[in-house]
Amino acid sequence: MASYLQDPQQNTPDDDDWLGSVRRIRTTHLQRCKDRDQRFSMLTCYDALTAGIFDEAGIEVLLIGDSAGNTVYGYESTVPVTLDELIPLTRAVSGAAQRAMVLVDLPFGSYEQSPSQAVASSVRLMKEGGAHGVKMEGGAYYADHVRAMVQAGIPVMAHIGFTPQSTNSLGGFRVQGRDDAATALLEDARALAQAGAFAVLMEMTASPAVETVTSEITVPTVGIGAGASTTGQVLVWQDMVGLTPGKAPRFVKKYADLRSVIAEAAGSYRKDVLKGSFPAPEHVFDE
Fold it and tell me: Which residues bind 3-methyl-2-oxobutanoate per the record (predicted)?
């Protein structure tokens, strides 16, 4: 076995399939993607079974997003989500993922007060949840927060553009980075990268602005509704497989229709139970 497989910290060989051969994805591997103009994939994840599936499929980064507020806890937004709610989900994913990097969102109210609060919250997510790093929403104002976390040994993915935790102050779900706002987006990205963020995620952001940011900063960029120029792409996994009800956002591609499959299976199960055909003899212990 090659030495880089024994020690995932080492550089990988210069071949087209190097990323798929890495035993544990690290920030250095994502940076190498950026340097080589290659891509990586990222999905949200909130439980052990799904984490195992995505890990086997080769997804490079799993994110325990505060989108769990919508997909797991049934909240109307991500704002109510707490650290205590994300830690057990993070523990489940980190315990099941053998290869993927596991990141977790800093939820609303867990970091804004000060850099020290951000460090303390991140430490909990890493020590109690087993996360490999955190994602934090906010622009250049939070550069000192990022700097403090990085100095404490915490890998940070910055999140700019549309930031769901700030939906109320942004005036709703609006595309960011258009016209004059593109300059501010670039300034935010530069400040956060210079502070030590290992990557910058941009959500629901105008593609031309994203292209500029991607070309101007040296760290990887990740997009969700941000065009094709970013180093990585992320989706909420329930959106990706068609579990989420209603019309999907424009930037979502449905790779399956699991909602219909599961609904059909549940309906068939109910019918079998009502007519007494389940459990059948083969499902029963005779002795």
Answer: 66-67, 105, 135
H/E run at residue 264: helix 258-275
Same domain, yes or no, for 205 and 126? yes
User: Which amino acid is present at 192?
Assistant: L
Confidence of residue 115 (pLDDT cuts 50, 70, 90): very high
Given the residues 128, 203, 211, 287, the one annotated as active site: 203
pLDDT of residue 132: 98
The annotation status of 66 as a binding-site residue, yes or no, is yes
Comparing C-alpha atoms, which of 111, 112, 129 is closest to residue 121?
A: 111
Contact 118, 145 (CB under 8 A): yes
Q: How many domains does the chain have?
A: 2
pTM: 0.92
Please give the pLDDT value at position 174. 81
What single-letter DSSP state applies at residue 249? P
Quote the distance between the C-alpha of residue 90 and its chain's center: 12
Quick one: CA torsion of 219, 224, 230, 232, rounded to 10 degrees?
70
Check the annotation: does 105 bind a ligand.
yes
**Is 203 assigned a catalytic role?**
yes
Q: In this structure, are 23 and 162 located in the same domain?
A: yes
Measured distance CA(254)–CA(238) in Å, rounded: 9
Bridge partners for 158 per DSSP: 136, 200
Q: What CATH number is attached to the domain comprising 67? A: 3.20.20.60
135 is in an annotated binding site: yes
